[in-house]
Design a protein that fits this description.
This protein has 2 domains: 75-176 and 312-329, Rossmann fold (3-Layer(aba) Sandwich), CATH 3.40.50.2300; 178-309 and 347-366, Response regulator (Rossmann fold), CATH 3.40.50. Helix 4 runs antiparallel to helix 9. Helix 7 (269-279) links the parallel strand 12 and strand 13. Helix content is 33%, strand content 20%. By secondary structure, it is an alpha/beta fold.
């Protein structure tokens, strides 16, 4: 079923976009004591064995330009207080080690929930006035501010993480193939479910969030074509009210037989984690490793895995590209092949299925699995 703002309507299910075979095992239904032939599992894609990993590739393509020297950069970073902040910091740390970025060459400023376009614009303009180049903004909330400040300062290089709506020659979008990460955690859910029924709770029903739904459903059906799926959207992603709606939605999905729910609802995902802990079921996080996130201790027992966006890889590559003068060589979107997305193994709950997930990663890199960005109608 698909739920939207508390209303229930029929949900279409994705059919697999490719043929899969491999080791097939029964998927337990209900209490796990009855085999359900409709939930047989394809543990790996056709022709790819468990544990087969894609070839390691450099996250930044080789450049014909001289070796990057980041020592002269003065990097300004505007954080949004969200889940990608820690990964961005890690990427700058990697740049410091890999590229010789000197201490004190990076200035970080952090926003708050009370920010407006005006305050974000002022923050970015101040970084420019202080002589920072490049300036990196984290999160789609900065899109309007980046548009305004980058247009006013065409000689300064800008990047925005997790948004590609700003089209200016001096702005680089560092965005991710969220659907691929969601495919992999969907596969994990199908491999781990004991009821052959799983769920999805999104925030606002936007094209970005629908990418996560599309990948998740496709990944689950690639493993278990007969799996049942409940899909719901809260309608928004922030505030206590949204978290309460997400919790109610997840409780209904768990009550209907789902035992794993993907929480892709932004800040409202906390409600899904609360529901999973209360019912003894499992939840999947999004964007960053929710098991390791600050304040997650109360929910760790309910977290199966998380779909990851590796902003550390994207930011490190961007700094090198700026230093070498080759920003155009960056990927247009960081996916599995570029090391830009993946899944978390914190807590050890999916350790036994990592070889199977590696086979699906390999299929994505090879192109034998093409992940959709839009849900089936």
């Amino acid at each position: 079923m698909r739920t939207n703002r508390g209303l229930v309507r029929a949900a279409a299910v994705l059919t697999a976009a490719f043929v899969v075979a491999g080791g097939v095992a029964g998927c337990a239904a209900g209490t796990g004591t009855r085999s359900d032939a409709a939930c047989a599992r394809n543990r790996t894609p056709t022709g790819i064995s468990a544990g087969t990993t894609p070839p390691a590739t450099p996250s930044l393509p080789p450049s014909a330009l001289p070796r990057a020297d980041a020592a002269r950069l003065a990097i300004g970073v505007a954080l949004d207080g969200g889940p990608l902040d820690a990964a961005v910091g890690a990427g700058l740390g990697r740049a410091a080690v890999d590229l010789g970025l000197p201490a004190g060459s990076t200035t970080k400023v952090t926003g708050s929930a009370a920010d407006t376009d005006a305050t974000r614009t002022t923050r970015l303009a101040r970084l420019v006035t202080e002589g920072h180049d490049p300036v990196i903004a984290v999160g789609a909330a900065y899109a309007g501010a980046v548009q305004a400040v980058a247009a006013a300062h065409p000689d300064v290089r800008f990047a925005i993480v997790d948004d590609d709506s700003v089209i200016l020659p001096n702005v680089t979008a560092l965005v991710f193939a969220e659907e691929q990460a969601s495919f992999l955690v969907g596969a994990a859910a199908a491999l781990k479910t004991m009821t052959c029924r799983i769920g999805f709770v999104g925030g606002a029903e936007t094209p970005l969030e629908q990418k996560s739904e599309a990948g998740y459903v496709q990944g689950a059906r690639a493993v278990a074509p007969g799996i049942r799926m409940d899909v719901g959207y809260v309608g928004r992603s922030g505030g206590p009210a949204a978290a309460a709606v997400a919790a109610d939605m997840a409780h209904r999905q768990f009550g209907g037989g789902a035992d794993i729910v993907y929480a892709a609802a932004g800040d409202a995902s906390r409600g899904v984690f609360q529901a999973a802990r209360a019912t003894g079921d499992l939840a999947i996080g999004a964007v960053s490793d929710q098991y390791a996130a600050a304040g997650s201790a109360a929910f760790r027992s309910a977290i199966l895995t998380s779909a990851l966006e590796h902003a550390d890889v994207a930011v490190r590559d961007y700094v090198e590209a700026v230093a070498s003068g080759d920003v155009a060589g960056l990927p247009t979107r960081f996916g599995v092949e570029e090391g830009g997305v993946g899944y978390a193994t914190s807590g050890g709950r999916i350790d036994d299925i990592v070889p199977d997930l590696q086979a699906y990663e390999t299929a994505i890199v090879r192109g034998t699995v093409k992940v959709s960005t839009t849900p089936a109608s």
